[in-house]
Amino acid sequence: MRKANIIAGGIGMLISALAFVKTFTFKQFKNVPVGPEFFPRALAVGLFICCLALVIQNILDRTNTEKAPTLSPLSKDIRRMLIGLAIILATAYLWSILGFLIVTPFTIFGLMLLLGKRNWIRMIIISVAVTFVVFLAFRFLLGIEMPMGLFS
């Protein structure tokens, strides 16, 4: 498990460094105190710190000799994770085409469904409400334009 943790930590640090560098390509807005790069940079730094801690902990801990469990794509949890990843990637692709207000409620609803929620009315209300609260917060509180897609 020790070797697997060190490898996973190294991969995580690489991904976080690439994400941090990618934020320098984001569009800059004038008179915006917090730009669209702030949150991704903060997440990238947090991921890097956590992965670095994982690597250091496993380098220093010589007592952890148990074998890492194997992951199978046939596992229910791995399939759910891959479906969730597909939902997120589809959302990222469709945002510029359809817009935040159309894509996001379906994304939230799909992820709640994936997590096992089955109260359909509550799921619809939460999906729509969270979408509008996030949109209003970004648009009017932070002054950040969201992709409008068909509404532009």
Rounded average pLDDT: 90
| Order of SSEs | HHHHH
Largest sheet composition? none
Helix content: 55-70%
Discrete helix count: 5
Q: What oligomeric assembly is this protein in?
A: single chain
Content of β-strand: under 5%
Radius of gyration, in angstroms, nearest whole number: 19 Å
Structure class: mainly alpha
What is the first-to-last residue Cα distance?
50 Å
Short structural summary:
It is globular, with a radius of gyration of 19 Å. Helices cover 68% and strands 0% of the residues.
Please describe what this structure looks like.
With 152 residues, the protein is mainly alpha-helical. Helices cover 68% and strands 0% of the residues. It contains five helices and no strands. The longest helix is centred in the first third of the chain and has 23 residues, at 38-60. The N and C termini lie far apart (50 Å). The model has no long low-confidence stretch (mean pLDDT 90).
Task: Detail the topology: elements first, then pairings.
Blueprint: H1 2-22, H2 38-60, H3 76-98, H4 100-114, H5 120-141
Helix pairs in contact: 1-2, 3-4, 4-5
List keywords for this structure.
5 helices, 152 residues, mainly alpha, single chain, globular
